[in-house]
Every structure is written in structure tokens, then in C-alpha cells.
Design goal:
Blueprint: H1 5-38, H2 42-45, H3 49-74, H4 81-94, H5 101-115, H6 120-149, H7 157-178, H8 180-195, H9 203-218, H10 220-247, H11 254-267, H12 279-290, H13 295-311, H14 313-335
Helix pairs in contact: 1-12, 1-13, 3-4, 3-6, 3-10, 4-5, 4-14, 5-6, 6-7, 6-9, 6-10, 6-11, 10-11, 10-13, 11-12, 12-13
Length: 336
């Protein structure tokens, strides 16, 4: 087998394995719960609309917090916040409806942010830092949640293992910050060694991106944005799930809720399906059942949350994209 066909062969195998996993999750986890949900749709009829409105507002706030994170990383004065927000919503919606949506959404966000006035090196550094910082914030939430989880009545050894792993990661992070100058020298040597193996025309661009990343991580305001906006983005979304559980008569302790939420979203990191569809639902429902939540309420709450969180932004993303295109066309017309 030659080098050209090997990657394609691996992609086909990975696709087949992914489909098997998704089908198994849907067949053995989601569908049985959906059958139970259909038997109790009267719960939906008695749902208080105020909970739905509050959930939508919280989800909107979640998207705004992510765009505030983007603005902090891009730097002041490059792009208007309204442009950043519409760009992020567009990318978020695209990632939910297109296979391989994360890569497509990233490319689209890059093009739109560049059209909005941001420099390419800053955009690349921002998207890279977001990918790292966002999930680092989720891991931090999961670790902090594992501390009080150790004292739950039904705590297991898994919580202790999670706590110890997180503690080791935090200790490594603190040490890395204290040894930042040594790490910067090591990173610079690695970058110089790597540049010689890359095409000559790409070297200046990669160097500028690396320098921008270094400046971002050295900026106190940017580090604060990691802790504030990236963390708030996840917590607001988790609050939407809690509100729907409460709406269906099953409000639960925030600790089991956050453990469920973090487990479901960390599982979605593996790109089996766009946005982790079916995977997130299956893990969230199973986790809630393990914490004693009524099965019918768990299914309805998770599906309502995913309807608002996953599918709700899709039509809004289309409108945002159209508005950005119209604004760009108007700006070009004025210049001509």
C-alpha cells in the first residue's frame, strides 16, 4: 500500500468505527429513553414557558461570553464586537450541521474575522488559544467539581482518581508558569528547528503566529479572560440544563449536574459526530439516571437543552452570515 492510499484507508476505517459507536449509543442509550419520554409527553404540556425563555436567554448569554473571550484574545480596536459575535455564532451554527464541521467553521471564522479587520496572524493565534483555553476551562471546572463530589453520599473511587489527576495537572501548570522563561527558550529552539523543515514562504507567517501566541499567554488581561469568559461560557450552558431539569420537576444538586455536564462535553471532544450529537445526549442522560434523576424527566430535560443549545443557534447563524455578507457588500460599494 502506498503513502497516498494509506491515509484514505485509515479515514474510511475511522469513519466506520465512528458510525458503529454512534449507532450503538443511539440504539442502546438514546432510543429506549425516547420511548419512555413519549409515554409522558404530558410533562411538556405543563412546562412553564418562563423556564424556556430563561433558558434561551442564558444560552444567548453563553454565546456572548464566548465572543467576549474572542475579543479579548484578538486585542482591542481590531474588529467591532458585533462583527465578532455574528462571526462566532455563524461558526457555531456551521459546526453543528456540516460533517467535519469544526474545520469548516474554523476556516469560515478566519475569513469573516479577516473581512472584519483582524490581522491573519492574530486570528490564527486567537483560534488556537481558544481551542486550548476553552477546554482547559472545562477541565478546570470538572476538577474543581470533583473536590466537593468526594463528599457526596454515593461518591466512588472515580471521583478520587479525577481529583488526583487534576491536582497533578494543576501542579504541572503552576510549575510551568514559574519556569516560563525556560519553557519559552525551549519553545523557541523547537520552533527554529521546525522552521527549517517547512516551505520557505510559510516561515514568516508561522513565526508571527508563534510570537502572537507568546504575547497572548504573557498578557495578564488575556489570562484573566481565560478564567472569566471561557469558564462563564461553560457554566451558563450548564445552567440551561439545570433550568430544564427544574422545569420538568427534577432540580438537582449543582455538583452532580456539573459532573454530568463536564463528562458529556469532554466526550464530545472526540469528533465522532458534528457537535457530539447523540454522544452528548447519551452520556448526559445516562449520567443523570445514575444520579437518581427520573428517567422521563432526564430525557426531556436533556433533549430540551440540546434543542436550545445545539439546534437553536443554527437558523440564527444563517441570519448572522447573511448580515455579515450584506455589510461587507455595502462597505465595498461605498469604497468603489
Amino acid at each position: 500500500m502506498d503513502g497516498a492510499t494509506a491515509p484514505a484507508w485509515r479515514r474510511r476505517v475511522w469513519t466506520a468505527v465512528s458510525l458503529v459507536i454512534v449507532i450503538a449509543v443511539v440504539e442502546y442509550v438514546v432510543l429506549p429513553k425516547l420511548t419512555s419520554a413519549r409515554e409522558s409527553l404530558d410533562r411538556v404540556a405543563h412546562l412553564n414557558p418562563a423556564w424556556m425563555i430563561a433558558g434561551v436567554l442564558l444560552e444567548a448569554s453563553c454565546l456572548v461570553s464566548y465572543s467576549l473571550f474572542t475579543r479579548a484574545l484578538l486585542g482591542p480596536g481590531q474588529t467591532r464586537f458585533s462583527w465578532i459575535l455574528r462571526t462566532d455564532v455563524t461558526g457555531y451554527g456551521v459546526s453543528h450541521v456540516i460533517p467535519g464541521g469544526a474545520a469548516t467553521a474554523t476556516a469560515l471564522r478566519f475569513r469573516l474575522l479577516q473581512a472584519g479587520g483582524a490581522r491573519p496572524s492574530n486570528i490564527t493565534a486567537t483560534i488556537t488559544a481558544e481551542a486550548i483555553g476553552s477546554y482547559a476551562a472545562l477541565l478546570l471546572i470538572a476538577w474543581l467539581t470533583s473536590i466537593p463530589a468526594l463528599f457526596l453520599r454515593d461518591a466512588t473511587s472515580a471521583y478520587l482518581i479525577m481529583f488526583l489527576i487534576g491536582l497533578a495537572a494543576v501542579a504541572a501548570g503552576v510549575r510551568a508558569i514559574r519556569q516560563r522563561s525556560a519553557l519559552e527558550r525551549f519553545a523557541a529552539r523547537t520552533l527554529r528547528a521546525s522552521l527549517h523543515r517547512l516551505p520557505r514562504r510559510t516561515r514568516p507567517w508561522i513565526t508571527s503566529v508563534a510570537l502572537r501566541l507568546r504575547d497572548l499567554l504573557a498578557d495578564h488581561e488575556v489570562r484573566k479572560a481565560f478564567f472569566v469568559w471561557a469558564t462563564l461560557n461553560w457554566l451558563l450552558d450548564a445552567a440551561v440544563l439545570w433550568m430544564f431539569l427544574a422545569a420538568y420537576g427534577e432540580p438537582i444538586n449543582p455538583i452532580p449536574l456539573l459532573l454530568t455536564y463536564c463528562a458529556a462535553n469532554l466526550a464530545a471532544v472526540v469528533p465522532l459526530t458534528p457537535g457530539g450529537i447523540a454522544v452528548v445526549e447519551g452520556i448526559a442522560i445516562s449520567s443523570l439516571l445514575g444520579f437518581g434523576v427520573d428517567g422521563q424527566a432526564a430525557v426531556l430535560a436533556v433533549l430540551s437543552w440540546r434543542l436550545v443549545q445545539f439546534w437553536g443557534p443554527v437558523p440564527v447563524a444563517g441570519l448572522c452570515y447573511l448580515s455579515l455578507q450584506a455589510q461587507s457588500a455595502t462597505a465595498h460599494a461605498k469604497q468603489d
